[in-house]
UniProtKB/TrEMBL annotation:
Record flagged with keyword Kinase: yes
Pfam family, one: GAF
InterPro entries: Bact_2-comp_sensor_kinase, GAF, HATPase_C_sf, HATPase_dom, Sig_transdc_His_kin_internal
Keyword Coiled coil: no
SUPFAM superfamilies associated with the record: ATPase domain of HSP90 chaperone/DNA topoisomerase II/histidine kinase
Protein name: Sensor histidine kinase
Domain of life: Bacteria
An MF annotation (GO) of this entry: kinase activity
């Protein structure tokens, strides 16, 4: 995830450079033409159209996206027409005149795609038999290169032929390619986010599912009512944990699912597992990455308290801290050497050790930035405390889940209700 974010940042920088290059050339073009409007107005119009085209191109190289983008690109270039093809040379969109000349350009389009370089076609090279002057004086066909592969071409048809127009066509194609690359990288980032959530689900399923079902089955004969209640909790827990809609949830929903998890674990461990909650009501609707808290609670139960003779206390605190919510998951279990934890987290993708912590740390940094990495305090025989900071507002972070308050009888410090 860090590599993808770094690459995305790099592409964004390249996008800015490509945008500035197009803008600079456009300013020179305006000055050369001595247009009646001011250069400042032309630049503002240019920026507006580039912004519109960027949003359209982030949808990918589709016919619909191309139809939205080509009018803005044609106005930017002040040319006769702009066309966009796919990687096979099929025309996706054409805005402007001289559209009947597309067939004359097919050979040059195929050559640009096959050889990966621009083609400059003058009117005299075409089989145009129109009487009188033709609006197509020249055409520049530039490959659109995305991730090292030709994804299509940009066709710029001009009524004049000069070096500035050719350079503008090249820089505009670079701008379009950068927007398409950002769209590809965004999809890759989403795919990685999905993979990380699947990894967390895989971590939950093997050990917890088996132990939960084993606990429930042991109660079927002795306490069937309790077994039915636990089975319902287990069903709700798995429904939430394996849902597929959205990458974010509310603290309220995450705490509700943690309540289900702890209800089942308390039935298994009995008096060895004690729980204390202190939740501030004003942070219940804070939005955070899906499945970011439950694995921390599970880690505390499995690695901290289950290994301690006689068990211990799990404390979950969520409090208001101005623009952020501060959340901590703490146990007074066996703890561990912090140096060893650091090494485990470095190699978690290979060894599987504490994969939940490593995964969550990567997700927090990817969503909110490096300032929101996990803070872990631990030592041998001194338990472990994990602290998260969640901003109350972060651009692009929202949930589409219904806001259901957690089943907590009181928000003051208290032991969790035993099943």
């Amino acid at each position: 995830m860090d590599a993808v974010r770094d690459l995305l940042t790099e592409r964004a920088v390249l996008g800015v450079i490509a945008t500035l290059a197009v803008l600079g050339l456009f300013v020179m073009l305006c000055r050369a033409r001595r247009v009646s409007t001011s250069v400042e107005d032309a630049v503002m119009d240019m920026l507006h159209r580039m912004s519109k085209a960027s949003a359209d191109l982030r949808e990918g190289l589709t016919e619909e996206a191309a139809d939205k983008a080509t009018p803005h690109l044609r106005e930017m270039l002040r040319c006769v027409a702009v066309g966009i093809t796919d990687h096979e040379g099929t025309l996706l969109s054409w805005d402007g005149g001289a559209n009947d000349h597309y067939e004359f350009l097919r050979t040059y389009i195929e050559r640009a795609i096959g050889e990966g370089h621009k083609e400059h076609v003058e009117h005299r090279k075409l089989d145009c038999e129109l009487p009188g002057p033709c609006s197509l004086h020249s055409a520049v066909i530039v490959p659109l290169v995305v991730e090292g592969e030709v994804a299509g071409t940009l066709i710029v048809v001009s009524g004049v032929a000069n070096k500035r127009q050719i350079r503008m066509a090249e820089e505009t194609a670079r701008f379009v390619s950068t927007q398409l690359e950002l769209e590809v990288l965004q999809k890759s980032r989403q795919a990685l986010a999905q993979a990380e959530v699947r990894a967390l689900r895989a971590q939950i399923s093997p050990h917890f599912v088996y132990n939960a079902l084993n606990t429930i089955s042991s109660l079927i004969r002795t306490d069937p009512a309790h077994a039915r209640e636990l089975l319902q909790e287990f069903a709700e827990f798995t429904r939430y944990s394996f849902r597929t809609d959205g990458f974010f949830t509310t603290l309220s929903d995450e705490l509700t699912n943690i309540h289900r998890y702890l209800t089942i674990e308390q039935a298994r461990y009995g008096p060895r597992l004690n729980v204390r909650l202190r939740i501030a009501p004003e942070v219940l609707q804070v939005v955070l990455p899906f499945l970011v808290l439950q694995p921390l609670v599970e880690n505390a139960v499995r690695h901290g308290l289950a290994k301690k003779p006689g068990g211990g206390l799990l404390t979950i605190i969520a409090e208001d801290n101005g623009a952020e919510a501060l959340i901590s998951v703490e146990d007074d279990g066996v703890g561990m050497d912090p140096d060893r934890l650091f090494e485990d987290l470095k190699d978690a993708h290979q060894t599987g050790a504490h994969v939940g912590l490593g995964n969550i740390n990567h997700r927090m940094r990817a969503v909110f930035g490096d300032d929101y990495a996990l803070v872990v305090e631990t030592a041998p025989d001194a338990g472990m405390k994990i602290i998260l900071k969640i901003p109350k507002y972060s651009k692009g972070v929202r949930t589409n889940l219904p806001l259901v308050p957690p089943r907590l009888e009181d928000t003051t410090e208290q032991p969790a209700v035993r099943a």
